[in-house]
Amino acid sequence: MAGTGRGLERIIRSAIAGLALAAPDLVSRGARAQDDPASVLLFGTLETGPSTFLTAGAKLALDRIDREGFVALATLGGGTRREGVGRRETASGAAVLGYQWFRDWGVIAAYVGLEGSLEALTTGGVTRLDPSRFGARLQGELWARPTETTLLTATAILDSSRTAAWGRLSWGWRVAPWSGWSAYLGPELALYADHTGYGKWTLGLHATDFAIGRFRFRTATGLQFEPESPVGPYVSVTAWTPW
Q: Superkingdom of this entry's organism (predicted)?
């Protein structure tokens, strides 16, 4: 059991490397499908700082991902964080079904489904593997454009497998294109809490919805606050592309 934490860390690093190696193939496939209506969206997020978490997944639409209708999400993730004098590693997976509504001002979506998680706590060189947990997941998302040059995003997730809650709110102003680069820039606030009593919140600046080739990106950086740890910087990167 002592090697469980190190093993999970190796899995996270391998997943990051795998995403990097897969990127050229994704670009090639995306270029071939440029004129086809996309029904699948691939995405991945890496957030690193005092705590680190990596998530990868896919969004599937019955018709097209850019139209109103039923959609499904499948995600896999893993992460590590300090807990007291030790570290906690977490692996999780979720599958949810939902519906997305398109309006002139933006998109709103709601999902419900299942999530499972496996956690390990390492203290003093000894690792304790907790029993696997399964539960329900509720998720809501909002991408709204109150004006032609502003973007409001909100995401909320409730997970009963870990009795966890996560939410993020951001606001951005669109900057004028520079050498083909354009994004919404502004502040963001995120909160997280779970069954262990752990909680954190982050405050930072984001750049959302800019393109590099067939990929679109969201990046953010700022400060992460935890009750029992010193304030530290965090960086997050999200990428998505139609398949």
A: Bacteria
